[in-house]
Specification:
It contains 12 helices and 17 strands. By secondary structure, it is α+β, with helices and mostly antiparallel strands. It folds into 3 domains: 110 residues, no CATH class; 110 residues, Phosphorylase Kinase, domain 1; 189 residues, Phosphatidylinositol 3-kinase Catalytic Subunit, Chain A, Domain 5. A hairpin with a 4-residue loop joins strand 11 and strand 12.
Length: 428
C-alpha cells in the first residue's frame, strides 16, 4: 500500500492510499472539530472514501492533456494514467490549500518550504516559447513541484519583488498562459473578455497581457492565494467537477457533465447565499453573450471559507470563440466549425443567437429564480457588454498593438447582444 499524506492549510487532515492493484481511497485523520473540508463531496467522516469519490477530486488537480501527462510520466518514470503517481511528484502545490506529501519527505516538508529562484524576462520568455512550440511538453522545470489542472498549456511563478520559480512546496502567485495555438491571439482574447466582464461589475480573475523577451502571455493573478510583500497564504477552492464528483473527461454538459441547473442545485445544497446563485447566473449570461464556448464545469469554482461557508470564485478562462469562425447569413459561426454552441444550455438551448424569450422563461422556472430579475439582468447585460468591451479596447490599445482581434471580436459580440435583445422581447 502506497500513501500520500494530505495537508490542508498546512495541517495534516488525511491519507490518500493506493494498493498494488491501483485501487485508491482517501481517509481522514481523526479530528476533534471535524471541520476539514477538502470537497463538497468529501466531508469529514471516519469511514474511508472509495475510488469513485476520490478520483474525481484528485484528477481535478492535475493536467488533463494526455501529451502533457505523458511528458511528466516520462520524466518521473511513472504511468501517465495514474493520478496518484503524478501527485507523488507534483502535489506539493495544488489549486486551493491542499498538498500531498510522500511519507519519506515529511520531515523536509515540515522543516523547509522550498526556495524562490529569481528568473529573468528572458528565461520567462523562453518558457512561454517552449510551451507555444511544444504544447504537449511538461509544464514544470527542475525542482518545481506545483500542479495545475486543465488542458491549456501554462506554468506558475511567484511574484515577490520580481518573478521567481517556486520550488518544493513554496506557493506560486501567478499563472502564465501563452494561449491556444490553433486560435490566433487567444490569450489576448481571454484578457479582453475578462476585463470587459470586470468593468460590468462581475467578479473576475485579475489579469495582465504581458511580453517577456518578445513572447506574449496572459498573466493571471491567482485568486486562491492571498499575499503581501513577504508572505503568501493559500485559500482552499475546488471546481464544479470536483464539487459534483465528476471526472474531468466528462466536464461538458454534452458529455453528461454538470449543467447550469446542477451547479445552482449544488450551491443551494451547500447553503450558499442566494446572491452566489445570482452571481453564477450573471457569469452564465456573460459567457453566452461573449460567445464563449468553453464555460464548462471546470471553469467555474467555489471558495471554501474558514467558517465552513462557500462562495463563488471569481470567473476565469473566458474567451470568445466568435472571432475564429466563418459565419453564416445569420452572422453566427457555421455549425460544423465546433464553436457555435455554449458549454451549458439555457432552457435546453445552447446555440449562440438562438436563446429566446421562451428559453429564458424555462431556465427561470427550472432554476427557481425570479424571472423578472433574470430578464432584467439579461437585458441590462446586452446593453452594457458592448459598451464595456469598447471601453476595454480603448484602455488596452497599447497592449493590443496591431492585432486584428478587436475588429473580429467587437462586431460579433455586439451582434450577438443585439440578437439576444430582439429574441428576449419576442413572444412577450
Amino acid at each position: 500500500m502506497k500513501e500520500l499524506l494530505t495537508f490542508l492549510y498546512g495541517q495534516p487532515v488525511g491519507i490518500l492510499q493506493q494498493d498494488q492493484s491501483g485501487n485508491r481511497k482517501f481517509r481522514f485523520i481523526p479530528q476533534e472539530s471535524g471541520r476539514a473540508r477538502l470537497s463538497l463531496t468529501i466531508p469529514y467522516r471516519e469511514a474511508p472514501y472509495p475510488r469513485t469519490i476520490t478520483d474525481p477530486f484528485i484528477e481535478g488537480l492535475i493536467p488533463e492533456g494526455e501529451g502533457v501527462r505523458q511528458s511528466f510520466a516520462d520524466n518521473f518514470g511513472i504511468s501517465a494514467r495514474n493520478p496518484f503517481a503524478l501527485l507523488e511528484h507534483i502535489g506539493l502545490e495544488c489549486a486551493g490549500a491542499v498538498q500531498f506529501v510522500r511519507p519519506d519527505e515529511i520531515d523536509e516538508f515540515l522543516d523547509s518550504q522550498g526556495e524562490l529562484v529569481p528568473c529573468t524576462d528572458k528565461e520567462i520568455g523562453q518558457r512561454i516559447k517552449a510551451l507555444s512550440s511544444s504544447p504537449k511538453g511538461t509544464w514544470t522545470v527542475r525542482r518545481e513541484r506545483w500542479s495545475l489542472a486543465g488542458a491549456q498549456s501554462k506554468f506558475a511563478l511567484r511574484w515577490q519583488n520580481g518573478w521567481h520559480e517556486a520550488t518544493g512546496s513554496e506557493p506560486t502567485t501567478h499563472i502564465f498562459k501563452p494561449g491556444i495555438q490553433d486560435f490566433r491571439d487567444q490569450a489576448l482574447n481571454e484578457h479582453l473578455c475578462l476585463k470587459a466582464l470586470g468593468l460590468m461589475g462581475l467578479q473576475v480573475a485579475e489579469t495582465n497581457f504581458m511580453q517577456f523577451d518578445g513572447q506574449s502571455a496572459i498573466v493571471v493573478k491567482r485568486y486562491d492565494r492571498l499575499f503581501d510583500e513577504n508572505n503568501v497564504y493559500r485559500i482552499h477552492q475546488e471546481d464544479f467537477c470536483q464539487a459534483t464528483s465528476t471526472l474531468p473527461i466528462n466536464k461538458y454538459e454534452s458529455s453528461k457533465g454538470p449543467s447550469a441547473l446542477k451547479i445552482i442545485m449544488t450551491l443551494r445544497q451547500a447553503r450558499a447565499p442566494e446572491t452566489e446563485v445570482q452571481k453564477f447566473v450573471e457569469g452564465l449570461i456573460g459567457n453566452y453573450l461573449l460567445g464563449a464556448p468553453d464555460a464548462h464545469a471546470k471553469n467555474y469554482s467555489i471558495l471554501h471559507l474558514p467558517d465552513g461557508g462557500i462562495q463563488l470564485a471569481p470567473f476565469y478562462d473566458i474567451a470568445s470563440g466568435l472571432p475564429y469562425e466563418h459565419v453564416n447569413a445569420d452572422g453566427f459561426p457555421q455549425k460544423k466549425d465546433g464553436l457555435r454552441k455554449a458549454a451549458m444550455s439555457i432552457g435546453s438551448e445552447r446555440q449562440f443567437g438562438r436563446v429566446s424569450s421562451k428559453h429564458w422563461s424555462r431556465f427561470a422556472r427550472e432554476a427557481r429564480i425570479d424571472e423578472e430579475w433574470l430578464r432584467m439582468t439579461v437585458r441590462t447585460m446586452t446593453y452594457a457588454l458592448p459598451v464595456a468591451l469598447a471601453q476595454v479596447l480603448e484602455n488596452e490599445s497599447e497592449t493590443i498593438g496591431d492585432s486584428e482581434l478587436p475588429g473580429k471580436l467587437y462586431p460579433k459580440v455586439e451582434h450577438l447582444c443585439a440578437t439576444t435583445q430582439t429574441l428576449l422581447n419576442r413572444d412577450l
